[in-house]
Amino acid sequence: MLLGRLGLDKARIPHSDRHGLIFLDRGRLEVEDGCLRFMTAGGGMLDAGDYQIPHQSVSIVLLGPGSSVTHDALRILAAHGCALAAIGNDGVRFYTAPPLLPDTSALARRQVTLWASSQQRIAVARQMYAIRFGEEVKARTIEMLRGMEGARLKRLYELTAQKYGVPWHGRRYDRANPNATDVPNQAINHAASAVEAAAAIAVASTATIPQLGFVHEDSGQSFVLDIADLVRHDVTLPIAFGAAKQFMKNERENLERLVRTRAAEIFNREQVVARLIEHIKTLLEEQVSGYISTSQS
């Protein structure tokens, strides 16, 4: 009652009018004189300095390595509906995040509605396939779609390996021991982890439901895996095979580090998180105003 009477429930800037994401690393996020500030000695995304953070006009702060945050900063972010996520360099890892409290539940409700209908669920899955491969399909079941996906992926692996000049003997993955395979497969495993982190950031940023996937089912991150797969062809595999090629030139390098470094460069250059957010909105046909933008700062 008091919130309504005081107008505090409408005091926040709608997420549709905010500037989306802001990346910070190697510094301290704190409050000074009621303002959110980020102090850094440099060496990361920002030059050394004391920056005032416009927490009322961004949707989520992505806090990278070498950073700390005070209790007061968390309080200020929560009061203004700005989420905070702890991430790896340029989003190659997603560690934890308090939930984003969006202006509306419309996107999550739309996801539930589509997921709960077998007919609409396969329609969304087909749309995912079209985004990935640029081809509309008429598959009537998820199983049929997975079979078509497997054939396309097999050829995609072969073509990408040829492009980067990396020997390829097929996709092999032992869940119990992911490193017990050849270099290209290990690189794909590491790249997939990085891209899944970017997808997790996108899912958290849109406050959609990670468990409700349209193609994936069993994982608690099924929707995250769905979204990560949307860029397997033009992000995950170029990261993996590019890093594998570099590793084969100098096997004293650390393969996982090479993959992470390459992933960070591609994520930053191609605005991968923003692209994934737009994919989520497109797939769920979000029509309600008042949701987050995807511009990055």
Automatic annotation (TrEMBL):
It comes from the Bacteria. The keyword Metal-binding applies. InterPro entries: Cas1, CRISPR-assoc_Cas1, CRISPR-assoc_Cas1_C, CRISPR-assoc_Cas1_ECOLI, CRISPR-assoc_Cas1_N. It is an enzyme of class 3 (hydrolase). Keywords: Antiviral defense, DNA-binding, Endonuclease, Hydrolase, Magnesium, Manganese, Metal-binding, Nuclease. Its EC number is 3.1.-.-. Its cofactor is Mg(2+); Mn(2+). Mn(2+) binds at E149, H216, D229. CRISPR (clustered regularly interspaced short palindromic repeat), is an adaptive immune system that provides protection against mobile genetic elements (viruses, transposable elements and conjugative plasmids). CRISPR clusters contain spacers, sequences complementary to antecedent mobile elements, and target invading nucleic acids. CRISPR clusters are transcribed and processed into CRISPR RNA (crRNA). Acts as a dsDNA endonuclease. Involved in the integration of spacer DNA into the CRISPR cassette. Homodimer, forms a heterotetramer with a Cas2 homodimer. Belongs to the CRISPR-associated endonuclease Cas1 family. PANTHER family: CRISPR-ASSOCIATED ENDONUCLEASE CAS1, CRISPR-ASSOCIATED ENDONUCLEASE CAS1 1. This is CRISPR-associated endonuclease Cas1.
